[in-house]
Structure formats: structure tokens, C-alpha cells
Amino acid sequence: MTNSNVLPVGLMTDFDVSLFQSGKHFRLYEKMGAHPGNHQGTEGCYFSVYAPNAFSVSVVGDFNKWDGTQHILYPRWDKSGIWEGFIPGVEKGTVYKYQIHPHKFGRVRMKADPYGFRMEKPPLSGSVVWDTHYEWKDSEWMKNRPAKNNLHRPHSVYEIHLGSWRYHFEENRPLTYTEAAEQLAEYIKEMGFTHAEFMPLAEFPYEPSWGYQVTGYYAATSRFGLPQELMYLIDVLHQHDIGVILDWVPAHFPADDFALATFDGSCVYEHPDRRKGFHPDWNTLIFNYEKNEVRSFLISNAFFWLDKYHIDGLRVDAVSSMIHLDYSRKEGEWAPNEHGGREYLRAISFIQECNKAIYTHFPGIQTIAEESTDHPLVSRPPDIGGLGFGMKWMMGWMHDTLKYFQKDFIYRRFHQNDITFSIMYAFSENFMLPLSHDEVVHGKASLIGKMAGDEWQKFANLRALYGYMFTHPGTKLLFMGSEIGPYDEWNFTKALPWDLLQFDAHKGLKSTVKDLNHLYQTKPALYHFNFQWEGFEWVNAGDFVNSILIYKRKSNKPDEQCLIVCNLSIKPQTDYKVGLSEAGTFTLLFNSDDPKYWGSGHDFIEKCTTRKKEWQGKPYYIDIVIPPLCTMIYECKPKKIIPAKMATTKKPVVKSLESKKANKK
Questions:
Q1: Whole-prediction pTM value?
Q2: pLDDT per residue as tens digits for the range 542-553
């Protein structure tokens, strides 16, 4: 059939097609989709779409009154399933879809472009001809990223749902990308976080999915502005020395009729076997990781965000559901692999290949797995059988810790192992400690709502928890709002309750997180060995009667050590002896019971020195005072030993709130 309105040319070469079909094309966004350009002196747009089961494919839109007979694409001669063509006169900003007639019986489908760079604002669902050109100003960040973003550097991540962080209150709407840029960068910098992590910003139609049901994998959501305005937001964050992580969802996609589902009447993107292709928890479809063209589509998408948007890390959602055939399935609802196991081997090989390609082509980035099982080697190289992620969310730590802090104080002595168990496996992976959005919704209560006790005790609990979190091995992630302690669960339909900061309790909690962040970044002992035993030492994990934990964090230098003391009981401790294997001086850096954090201002010891006298099987000890429900961080420095004869004649100075006030006067 002759089509004078479309020229039979595209951007895909034979080599591109070969790579695509072998699952090795990682930059398909440069060739597939819609690309404005010039062909032999004529301005227009190249279109290319994969629809292997189609009888015909047309480009329709306002430019041709949505008439599918006017601009019919040409199938490539190589039977690759790719349809392409150049349409003169189609400009940037044109709304379009693909009208697809299935090869056999079936209804005509109107589909958004899987590779489209922009989409209409939901509930509209058309693709928009666009480009990814942007003049970046983050060269300094990009040059230094490999040094700043490596695993030996501090990672303190502020997780953000952009639609509910702050509102434009005069117009009662979320901030745009441009409006949020400076505000968010300045706030994150003030609070001391090193990274911003955005919940998914690829286009999605269903607001309550928070972005985790993606329909436009290559299109930044138009809710907050244009693609270049998102680039500007990332650029501003980089200029403030803040890394950017994006949640990425290669595990599943929604069944919306305008998107990827049964794209040409057949299972183009989803697995045709419902045991592998349908997710029962979310009523979504699962990508066919066994199909090379789908693997190319997904790996190219990961490259796209790292390349065109300068993203510094991808947090990969729902990895557990990808790698286990029996995930959320009952007996008889899944089939074992060829070895009789539950592992989805092709999904695992896809993840390995994706991570390997990402780390090879983008220096200084990190990939982070949300993986909730005990699958081994998640953050280990594919060459030794690992999945190849840089880090893994430490879900066990999160659940055990929150469960512990919900318990009444009189019962905590019976659950000391719940809070110490994480160290048993803390170095089996490169763990990130998450207190994420999932823990403050769906009836789980806000973090402050989970804490045991009265109002003061709840805030003291949460301050102590944050102190414990920031000193526990592993990198850190905190969901937005958790630093101000809202009583209500997170509500994605409205802004965070920033007005709470007029109250001392909430203001003190914010100051706690801020000071912990700055301490975490400036003390190598708290981050240098985040994933290795060399950076941790139990001093006393067994005082379950008093619910006290004492441990050391260490850097690679002997004189860079911190002693952490956690009192998770409402009972203060006076004249508490801590046995130590080394002599030194101990200077208090942080006390979550400080009145500036809304603490009680109980007595404390600001500086002390070890005494050479055996205590609990160790050759030295110090005397300290431990306030109730608090975390204290002492800096340790090597010191000359005090002779044993002096041990009973010279004691550290006990300071109180009253003595501090007197000193100020």
C-alpha cells in the first residue's frame, strides 16, 4: 500500500536491530520512539515502534484529526516487528498515539509511545513529541561523583514524594519541578542529607500508586512540569552537592489499555504465561524477562535516566517479586525452574546484566535493591553469582527495630535480641537502613505514632531510635516528614504538616536529625566501614535488664573511633561502668536527651578517661551517667593510662542542666 504522507525511513540501522533482538541494545531511546529532525531538507519527525503482531500501525493525533488512514508506518524488511517512518511537518509539542490493527482478529488499539519522552498530564494519555536537550551546569558534581558517591562515603538519603512534600498554598497544589528546586536543595543541605531519593517520576495515571504503576517509562511525569524542568531540579540539587536517586520499577506495569498491556493484541511486553506474567498482589502485569527485546527496552530505560537526567542512583523496586517464581503465589500457582527451584533464573540474569552494564557505562553511580528476602549475594558482583547491586535495603533491621520500639518499656528486657540480632548479618550485604514511606501508611501509624509511652516518651524514643540508626552499620534512608514527627500517617493528597515546627517537641526532633546527619558526615568512624566487621565492635550487648546497648564504630585510623551508648529504658543510670579493652579519653559529641532536642536535661558526663582496673573481663573501664531513653555518642581518643591507685580518687565531672545554665551565666 502506497503512503505518500510517510517516508519509509527510520533511525534504526541493521546493527541496531541486531542488538535489539539479542537483548544488547542499551540506548534504544536514541532510535525508537519519536525524534524531531530533518530528512533531506524537510523538517518533520521520525517514528519507530515495536509491534511484532500488528497488521498495520499508524501515527494519529491532532495534526491529522486522529485519522489512522493518513500516516501509516512501514514494517522493516527484516521482519523484526519494528514499524517506522518519517512524517513531514510534525513538530515538537505534537500530541500523538499509535493506532494498531492486530494481525489477526481483534480490536484496534490506540497506544501511547513506549519510548515517548513526554506525555499529556493525566487523565489524558497521549504522547507528546519532545526532545531531551538541556544545558547542564553540574559538571563539578559529575566530575567528582565517583569519589563522592562510592561505598566508603556517607549516604544519608531523604526519600521524597514530590507531590506532597510542600504545597503552593495560595493555589493549593503541589510545587512544580522548578518551584521545588531551590527550596528542596536548600532544605536538604540544611538538614545534612547527602542524597535525595524521589519516588517514581516516570509517567503514571493512578495517583494512589504513588508512581509505582508506570505507563510512560521514558516520560517524566507532566504533573510537575516539562522534562527539562525536572532536569533543572536535578541540576540544582547537584549544584548544592546533593546526589539524586530515582525509584525505578522494572518489576511490573499496569494493565491500562493505552499503555504497554497487550500492545499489539499480543503479549509484547508481559509474559504470556500468567504464572509469570501477572502479579496477584497489585493486579499488574510482569515483564517478560525471557524476551530479548524486553530486556533491551528495560536496560535502555535504566540508561536513559542515568544518561539524559544525570541520575546518580537507581533504587530498584520489588526485586523479590522479580527473582522468585512463587512470590505471593500459593502451591499450584507457580511452576519451578528447570532445576526444580523457586528462583526465576531469567529474571536473575536480566538483573545481573542490567547492573553490570550500568556500572560499566556510568562511573560513580549506585543501584540499590528493595529486596525483602534472604536471597544471597544481592549486593555482590555477578561474576561470583551475585545480583550486582551496590546496596540492599535492610528490611529485617527495619521490621525488628520498629517492632522493638513499639514495645512497652517493662517488656523490652525480654526482647534485647530483637534489637541486637541485626549485627549477626549486618555485613553479609551492603545494607542501607530504611525508614521508608511504606512504614507510615495503610494503618501502620506514623513513626511517632508507633513509639511506646506518653508524649514525651514517644519523642524520646524516636530521638533514641534515630541515634541508634545513624550509628548502626549501613547507609541511611529517612522518608520525608519523619524528621518532624507528624502524628498522622502520610497522606499523598496533601502537603506535610510543616506547621508542627512551631512546637518544641517537633522542632527538637528536626534538630536531632539535622545534628545526626552532620555528625555522620564529619566522623569517618560512623561511615568508613559501613559494610565491614572492621568498623564495629560490641562493648556490651547483654545488659537486657537495663535495656542498654553499647558499641564502637571505627574508621581505618586508630584515633577515629566513636563509642555509642543507647539507653532504651525510662530508667536513668548513674555511675554506670563500661568495660573497655583499650585506654583512652571519651568526649561527648551527641546526647539525644539534650534540652535543645526536647530532652529531659538529665545529668550526664561530658568527658571521661579510662581507668586501669578490670571490669567485666576487660582491663579498663569508664564511669558514665546515662539519661533515660537516649542515645549518646562519644568520640574516643587514645590516652595515657591512669594508674590503678588513682581510680578511686579521681572521677569524671557530672554535668546537669543546672550546671550548664550556671556556666552560661
A1: 0.94
A2: 999 999 999 999
> Which residues sit opposite 475 in a β-bridge?
432
CA separation for the pair 461, 472 (Å, rounded): 16
The owner of cell 527495619 is: 398
What domains can be seen in the chain, in order of their start residue? Answer: 14-128 (2.60.40.10), 156-393 (3.20.20.80), 535-664 (2.60.40.1180)
CB 396 within 8 A of CB 422: yes
d(Cα 310, Cα 220) in Å, to the nearest integer? 13
Max CA distance (Å), the chain: 104
Gap between the Cα atoms of 137 and 374, Å rounded: 42
H or E element in which residue 313 lies: strand 313-316
Give the Cα-Cα-Cα angle 30, 129, 85 (nearest 5 degrees): 65
Contact 358, 300 (CB under 8 A): no
The predicted-structure confidence for 21-78, as pLDDT tens digits, reads as follows 999 999 999 999 999 999 999 999 999 999 999 999 999 999 999 999 999 999 999 9
Strands (E), 454-512: 475-479
Residue that is written with C-alpha cell 533464573 in the block: 345
- For residue 159, the cross-strand partners are 197, 479
DSSP string computed for 398-461 = HHHHHHHHTS-GGGGGGGHHHHHTHHHHTTSS-EEEEE-GGGGSTTS--HHHHS-SSHHHHHHH
| Catalytic residue set | 317, 370
Q: Which residues of 462-498 are buried (b: 16+ CB within 10 A; e: fewer)?
A: bbbbbbbbbbbbbbbbbbbbbbbbbeebbebeebbee
Asked whether 250 and 322 are in contact (CB, 8 A), the reply is yes
Exposure on the CB side of residue 312, measured as CA atoms within 13 A: 29
